[in-house]
Structure formats: C-alpha cells, structure tokens
Amino acid sequence: MSELDLVEKIRKRAGKPKGMVVGIGDDCALYRPRHKEDLLFTTDPLIEGVHFVKGTDASRVGERALARSLSDIAAMGGEPRFCLISLTCPNDAKWIDGFYRGLLKLAAKTHTTLAGGDLSHGPAIHCEVMVCGAVPRAKALVRSGAKVGDWIYVSAPLGKPWDSPIEPRLSLGKKLRASASACMDISDGISLDLHRLCKESRVAAELDDVPVYPGATLERALHGGEDYELLWTSPRKSRLGFCVGRIVAGKPGLVRLRGIKVPPQGYDHFGIDIT
C-alpha cells in the first residue's frame, strides 16, 4: 500500500472532521475556535522501548498514544477538540491499521477529531501526539492555585500496572472547574507530581494516606507513574475521588506522608536530581 493510499484510508476511517474548516489532506488543518473559549495545547511522545515494549498490540499502542494527551486536557478542565498524529514505524500495513483502529476508537468515544499529522518509515515505532482542547474563557485549572488549608484529592487508587488501559478523566475534569483550586494529572507518580504542584503553588503537602491499586505496593503507588489519574486541591470537602491529605505551610514542594518526608522519586526521563 502506498503512502497516498494509506492517508486516504485513514481519512475515510476518521470521518468528517467535526469543527474543522479543513482537515486531513491539506498542508495544515484549519480550526475556527468557538466564541469565548480558551484553547489548550499539549503534546506527548510514545516511543518503543521507552513507553511500551516491542510486540505490544498495535491497537493498544494507538489508544494509549492519544489517551496520555487527553489526560492533560482533563487535568485543565477542558474538552478535546482535535488531535494531530505524527507516526514513524516499520512498513507494516497491518500494524499501522491496528494503531489507527485503537486511536480512532478512543477519539470517537471522547469526541476528538483526527485533523491531520504525518507518516514516515523508520526502524522503530515513534509517535508524537498533539491535542488541542478548549475550556470556557478564564476557567482552566492550573497547578499554581493551591492554598494552605486546601484538601488534596486523587481520582482513583494509584500504582496500577504500566500497561493498564488509560481512562482520561475528562468528565471529572469538567466538574472540577467549579471547585478545584489546582489540578494536574498523575503521570510520573504522586510523590513527584504533588511536589510539582506544591512548587508551583508555593506550598507544602501533608498526606494522611494514599489509596493503593489492588496488587500494588505503597512504594509503587507513591513513585511508580503511568497512572494518568487526576490530582487536585479544593478548599472544601468533596465526594469526588479520594481525599489523601491537606495543603500546609512549608518549604515549597515539600511532601510528607504521616509526618515523614516523601522524596520526589517518580519517573524522571533524564534522571536529574530536582531536590
């Protein structure tokens, strides 16, 4: 199958580009924003041997590629609008078909339009996903709004296996626009991501407990990463998620669990000491 044939097949499978003035087939996609909304942009790589092992089912790779970026949109209280996909992989039509099948299944479920991208041949699989989302003007959730006294929440137990399906918490993110003071997704372990949130907010955190995924250890729940759950703070108690502690005064970025300092030892792509 030629590249032109492959692009045409992807365009037909993706369907009519909702909300797009111009979609797959031109040099650029063209999107016209709705009135009174702010746009959100995020990008994530997915690399064979780094983010998934060789031989992983192609549809799962495609689904995961999109899900990771959708989790960022959820963390800011947004709704996805469209995505762009750049894929480098061996010349394997069956694998490419499976990749887009998994990706487009999640795209349809989350109302995310595949607006374009690029394809290239290479010895290993490397995917770059860019997602554009939107949020009502001035309503985006950010990391820098946590205040002393706020409660700390997570959306689900942490420490699940790295290859577990990702469920982007888009509906929850939209609900949190009404109550959260700060929010982010947990992709590198709560020990590191809560440290980041506290650094941005110039506060510290005291954890009482961390909900642990069945079969996981507390160590993995704290430092493992690849959870893609939401972490947020709120000035008032909520029935949403799991309350794990409270924001306190202290050295910005400091995280303690039942009085004991928790080092920010989540997944670090470059192994740089940030303490």
Question: Which geometry do the CA atoms define?
Answer: globular
Category from helices, strands and their pairing: alpha+beta
Number of strands: 13
Strand arrangement in the largest pleated sheet: 8-10-7-11-9-12-13
Low-confidence segments, given as residue ranges, are: none
The total domain count is 2
Q: Mind summarizing the main beta sheet?
A: 7 strands, mixed
Question: What is the element string, with H for helices and E for strands?
Answer: HEEEHEHEEEHEHEHEEEE
Top CATH class of the largest domain: Alpha Beta
Give the averaged pLDDT, no decimals.
Answer: 90
Computed Rg: 20 Å
CATH fold field value of the largest domain = 60s Ribosomal Protein L30, Chain: A
Full CATH superfamily name of the largest domain: PurM-like, N-terminal domain
Q: What does this protein look like?
A:
This protein is α+β, with helices and mostly antiparallel strands and 275 residues long. It has two domains: 3-136, 60s Ribosomal Protein L30, Chain: A (2-Layer Sandwich), CATH 3.30.1330.10; 143-261, PurM-like C-terminal domain (Phosphoribosyl-aminoimidazole Synthetase, Chain A, domain 2). It contains six helices and 13 strands. Strands 8-10-7-11-9-12-13 form a seven-stranded mixed β-sheet. The protein has a four-stranded mixed β-sheet with strand order 3-6-4-5. It has a two-stranded antiparallel ribbon with strand order 1-2. Helix 1 (3-14) runs parallel beside helix 3, helix 2 (58-75) packs parallel to helix 3 and helix 2 (58-75) packs parallel to helix 4 (170-176). The protein is globular, with a radius of gyration of 20 Å. It starts with a helix and ends in a 14-residue tail after the last strand.
